[in-house]
Amino acid sequence: MNSAVLVFPGINRERDMARTLRLVSGREASMVWHTETQLPQGTDLVVLPGGFSYGDYLRCGAIAARSPIMDAVRAHAAKGGLVLGVCNGFQILCEAGLLPGVLMRNQHLRFICRDVFLRVERSDTPFTRGYNAGQVIRVPVAHGEGNYIADGETVARLEGEGRVIFRYSSPDGIVDPDWNHNGAINAIAGIVNEGGNVLGMMPHPENHVESVIGSTDGRGLFAGLVQHFEKAA
Amino acid sequence: MPGLVPGFAVLAPVWECRGWLRQPLSRRMYKPGPRARTVAMIPNEPKITPELVAEHGLKPDEYQRILDLIGREPSFTELGIFSAMWNEHCSYKSSRVHLRGLPTRAPWVIQGPGENAGVIDIGDGLAVVFKMESHNHPSYIEPYQGAATGVGGILRDVFTMGARPIACLNFLRFGDPKHPKTRSLVSGVVAGIGGYGNSFGVPTVGGSVGFHTRYDGNNLVNAMAVGLAKTDSIFYAAASGVGMPIVYLGSKTGRDGIHGASMASAEFGEDSEEKRPTVQVGDPFSEKLLLEACLEIMQKGCVIAIQDMGAAGLTCSAVEMGAKGDLGVTLDLDAVPTRETGMSAYEMMLSESQERMLMVLKPEKEKEAEAIFRKWGLDFAIVGETTPSKRFIVKHGGDIMADLPIKELGDEAPVYNRPFVETPKLPVIAPDSVKPPMSIADALEKLIGTPDLCSKRWVWEQYDHIILGNTVQRPGGDAGVVRIEEGPKGLAMTTDVTPRYCEADPFEGGKQAVAEAYRNLTAVGATPLAITDNLNFGNPERPEIMGQFVGCVRGISEACKALDFPVVSGNVSLYNETNGRAILPTPAIGGVGLLNDFTKSVSIAFKNEGDVILLIGETTGWLGQSLYLRDICGREEGAPPPVDLAAERRSGEVVRDLIGKGLLTAAHDLSDGGLAVALAEMAMAKGLGATLDAAPKSVPAHAFWFGEDQARYVVTVKAADRDQTVAQAKAAGVPMAKLGTVGGDMLAIAGERAIKVSVLSNRFEGWLPAYMAGSN
Amino acid sequence: MPMKARVYVTLKSGILDPQGKAIEGALKSLGVEGITSVRQGKVFDIEVEATDRARAEAALKAAAEKLLANTVIENFRVEVIG
Amino acid sequence: MPMKARVYVTLKSGILDPQGKAIEGALKSLGVEGITSVRQGKVFDIEVEATDRARAEAALKAAAEKLLANTVIENFRVEVIG
Ligand SMILES: Nc1ncnc2c1ncn2[C@@H]1O[C@H](COP(=O)(O)OP(=O)(O)O)[C@@H](O)[C@H]1O
Ligand SMILES: [Mg+2]
After folding, report:
1. Is there a contact between A131 and A226 (Cβ–Cβ < 8 Å)?
2. What is the mean pLDDT of residues B124-142?
3. Which of A1, B443, B467, C61 has the least CB density, counted as fewest CB within 10 Å?
4. Ligand nearest to the CA of B167
5. What is the average pLDDT across A73-83?
């Protein structure tokens, strides 16, 4: 699997992401500066990592979404190429129009960093084939604006088309306001686009891939992607 | 006192101070010296009056010293420069004499106090760079921005030296929770620390939060940053070479925080909220770019010298670069990138705009460095050069605005050996003279939900503590632990001090602060290597306060020597008082330790049913100054627990050895709240209970469970490992006693009401969120 | 010719505003009476260099559409002060 | 009587506005011409229930001072629309 990690000014989890990709796929990811207009030849997976692109000033992800490299990302997605946006990456994808909706301030208005539980809603996507449907994984979040909102129609479509991939839940997989730390509508933690090839999610699976650092629950996502490309090859 | 103090400090490290103290006052009269000369000064400057001098925080004899030094009246800009260089914050004039007693050397120390941050060697060609710094006053005036820029400043100190920051900590003290300002200060400060660190992208892995009415008008915000560098590429402030370009990098200069450094050295009065000096606003985004750009040009070999602009911005950084390198510096302010129009030389020299750096670059690499800075979207300007003259010359609009002897600006700063009185000793409180007002179980339930002992989760969950993917031990235990690169080494860090002990007995309190840091590092399995300190006190011009300062520093010094735990960096914050009421003496200690294998680190959480719980160290039931005495009996009294440093070392060595051998399943040091509180914390961390034997007959039960004797730990071992563990402690001459067994969902002390661990957790986790929501 | 202008960006009605909600609650607990609803928006004070007012307005409209507002959830209004 | 009002909160002059700075840069790279300076502020659309305009204004001023503005670094202006 050849991955390209996009680097916008102010992004700060690009190293975490690159390390995880190397650990799980055995290959170095290419780091792609925001002013580039093309992705490296042969890129399978484009990753928009977490951080505070442009300081999160104006709106999270707004300025980065208008960077030169984003046209190349759009083209990659239009051809069915896989795109993964995590945290600020998710916000950028929404601002860029590659995913619907917006991420608003957490309902309690505070930044929050803690482990949360995610219910994996389907396992038949390239992003989740490493998990079973209904499986609950523990991964960390670290964000101040992860409260997913979209208009009623959009949410209905997302639900109807099975495009909600991850949902905040209790350790037993029960969706409940007490376990939805940011107040996201329908406890949405991650969604895909219509084509199913662009995933945006708030939690950080890349920070839970080593047992010595606490948990390996995030590994399935990357391992699944590797499998996906192996099978394709 | 020639060569009194090797430069200890910080934003403006001091060099050597000579002469000043030896001269009797009568001799320090103005007489034009050989250096006197006429300088073209612009005409429209304010006239220097005694009032203006006083407004700059300079005492009449200090001003006289300036006249002696330069042989003429200073210009307004020069007065500003002197006030910045000679204020308490930058010159350490009240503290220097005492700081020299601190041990600063060890084979593993690469750089002690005197640079932007201390540097220690951790093997494999790697160095750890760290320092702690206060932003107390700015955080009281504007909590969010004050705290944020405090974090920004300390991060710059660390990456200026060529280190990539890998962790942050913060030490916070607030006033009485019932004080009307406390809640909003907590909320603003915590959000500010998170707002800066989270965006910059460094994990905040530890700290400390406490409350006391003596911090009502003076909260404490001390931020610590830790970075990782290669031992062969550490960067310093000293310039070298004549005619080298001096380069300004980073954000533009505005009128931020002018007089900020002077403010940090002035006592607050009733009107402080009206005075509202220009507040510095932090821009973590720019700082992150500055970090990446600086590390990139350092790696490309462009940098000869580098200094961040902190307190008193351009003044301190430029003077220091020159003075340390035995060179003069000429600055041309017309080249300084400014954000506002019409800034005067005075304003530019004193501005504390954030996210700026000054560098001397290798001339042949200038273009390359500039390209890197432009790529990161940062300002880059050549603003001056080094000269052979040893003078500090500032030009603006074609005029010379300042022309001062550069070495003397630092060297000749006044140094005071201020009078002090020692804090009187308090009586030792006999354990059986304290009558328990409630049962052990009731007292534990109450204590665990008090402001000082409750969980600080509400705070540290607002900090990204996992970014970089190396956090092995998150906040909530004894020390934060991060993996170093890909391992196997790990770094542990903690911040500690018990201000009520320092108030009761500064010397013992100073010792205890160091000992507790040593213990917290040990409890996670790390070998303590070095400390940074942040000495927060009241007005040093009052002999009692000076006595607290001197006592604490002596205690710290003694403990550091006994524990091989040198001081490599630090910061002094004085004048923390309002209307004559000082804060509790609060010498915060930031400790750093090394684990050879981070996977061996143990946490405080109980692990397995059936594990045996052991107490390490001697228990006499010391109740003087304990939280039990204060919060259960309502008495803030008595001598604090003495610290036997030899015992501290013995206990520590045994614990580290046992952890290294993989024998311990959990470890926790004993501090605030004593044994019962520590056991409750271990139980709550896993949601697993314990059955505990009754207190031994020799100590009253409440004193046994809540006394705060030092040099103690609670550890757990698998039942099968018990004998080996006990034998090892015995061989080392360290007392070890069985306390009970892990298991169940209750904390059950023989003969006491058993408490459900979940009940304890609710109380422990409940207080702070409820307080912040305004509902208690 | 340098001109001063303002761009207002406000949430479309129907879009939830967690900040506004939180402020409403906070005002109540601070004892400020009578405030029944709060919605938070942004205002940009902009200096623009253009040959005439119409051009300035065009530039501001472009700024708002391209960046200042997220038109999925926000409305904007441009006001050239002169 | 229900009334609509607006509170504007803007940074005091001289206070650094990192957001404005970043937006300025972004507009330049998006090719929006002529914009020389951007400063970002907040606007609150508020509904207030008061017996008369003066009282509404008083409530809004209290809200701004206590919560909406950080008066150390921000100015505010209250505008009752009616
Ligand atoms: N301001 C803070 N920032 C981060 N972590 C904190 C803060 N305050 C407390 N903590 C964490 O909470 C835990 C308990 O703190 P404390 O009671 O001071 O520990 P100890 O008694 O071991 O020194 C520690 O892990 C500490 O790092
Ligand atoms: Mg501890």
Report:
1. no
2. 96
3. C61
4. 1
5. 98
